[in-house]
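Hey, quick one: can you model this chain's 3D structure?
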Amino acid sequence: MTHVNEPTEDEIQREAYLIWLENGRPKDRALDHWLEARELLRHLARPKDETGHDPLHFTPPAAHKPRPPKKAAKA
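Sure thing. Here's the predicted structure for all 75 residues.
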């Protein structure tokens, strides 16, 4: 399955190289960095809804959290 905004191989390799540098240039981690770069670029390219949120990972605003119950009034 191809994503609509699939990053190119060059974009993935460039991002993987930056991840490799950030991680201290470890040996034998090329595939891990390539996969991480691809997922990062896919996430960044994912379309947003009209409010700017990622529709697949929407978190409701804090105002929508349930309020704690009111304390009983003293008599």
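One thing worth noting: The chain has a mean pLDDT of 78.
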